[in-house]
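Q: Entry one of two.
A:
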Amino acid sequence: MTARRRSPRLDVDHILDDRRTHIIVCCGSGGVGKTTTAAALGLRAAERGRRTVVLTIDPARRLAQSLGLAELDNTPRQVPDIDTTAGGQLDAMMLDMKRTFDEVVEAHTTPDRARQIFANPFYQTLSSSFAGTQEYMAMEKLGQLRRRDQWDLIVVDTPPSRSALDFLDAPERLGSFLDGRLIRLLGGPARAGGKAYRKFFQAGFNVVTGALTKVLGGELLRDVQTFVNALDTMFGGFRERAEKTYALLKRPETAFFVVAAPEPDALREASYFVDRLSDDGMPLAGLVLNRLHVSDGSGISEEQAIAGAERLETAGGHDLAAALLRLHADNVAAAARDRWLGERFFAAHPDVPVARVRALASDVHDLDDVRHVGHLLTGA
């Protein structure tokens, strides 16, 4: 029995049609087709009767154009020209990391305190470029969308991190940072109660900040202290929301789709992610193996095609036929390589359901292309 036969098929339509499924998370390393997969899942779900929103992290305009939208931003926009006869709808949005962070601040502090935070140079850096902020804010936005109860299915395209594991780790890292001892210490004098206690605390605080000033510089340290003091009423909230995010992701209403391409690095990341989801008790739906080269194996072999091309080239006058034979040889070789790489993953994870999506001849350009990818995902 081959590895392909041992791997169960990922029944995508069953997951999309199951009204108990409220969140689908597409994850994996960068450049494997997560964004297109998320859009195709969202479109197929909507046209099968689900009220769906796709949250993408992809900054490229290509996705917006393929969905028939002029642009995507932090506000969900309805996708036009989809089949709504089954009662569904499709909205799409692109995460604005800084705007989402601003919304968190506005929701958990006073307007005056929010203005102080927004004006702070340290906050401006933290909210726009701090490592892990994008992943954390993607989950913040997911929580906001789920609480609105406007959609019965949310499809999340996770950030294109260097490592797919960053997506699961970032909320805890950022929450721990903002709620950690060092940050609390930097805001300590503002929190210390009682005159005697403040005097004692200030003495120790001065020693620590004196050392930090030498490392960070006085101006940056003052920005951090000002930010922390302005953020005082929000402490604990970041960690609490990170924990709620983890709880949400572990519920049966969530389905993780690990997306990979037949490349060693992408499949290695997919393997790590499958193991991590299992270790954390998160609901894995299965693997989407994208961009597969397909050859049925019943035609001309790679060796025969190359030999035939060489004979035609020697004879002369058959350039087109020779080129087609070489193209066929390349496709047969690519298909064999893809099968071999896939079998290595399946051997390590024989129980993981798999959806195989063959490579397209061109990029996804419009709604019909997105719909076609949805058909390929389901084997339709």
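Q: Entry two of two.
A:
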Amino acid sequence: MTVTPFNPRALLAESRLGVLATIKADGRPQLSPVQPFYDQRSNILYVSTNEGLAKTANLRRDPRAALEVTSADGLSWATAEGTVTLTGPGTDRHGPEVEALVDYYRAAAGEHPDWDEYRSVMVNDRRMLITMPVDRVYGATIG
């Protein structure tokens, strides 16, 4: 019997649901469910979010963050830590802020059926991109 060692980076890459932890002004953690995309080659984690949320205010004040994901069966987990950069929101559908969201979408999901619509929604919804080069990854599996 061959046992494959647990790879927390692989779990990060396959997970599309996680919990992002940011730091509130009083030092307590603020947790947000998010849909992350982790690019193993570049070791960068991406999350699309909206302007005006607690996580964006927290990250502007203190850019340190952690993201935790679990396997579908709940028996494995992985946590990534790093310092984020916020991009956006953009006001120009073809500006660099929206282009960053287009690049993110392409990497995470492929081609969009209507890029004009996507770009308009990104501007209208005041979407932002959280980019986190991963400094540390750890995790475990049960069994």
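A: Comment on entry two: The CA atoms of residues 5 and 141 lie 9 Å apart. The first helix runs from residue 8 to 14.
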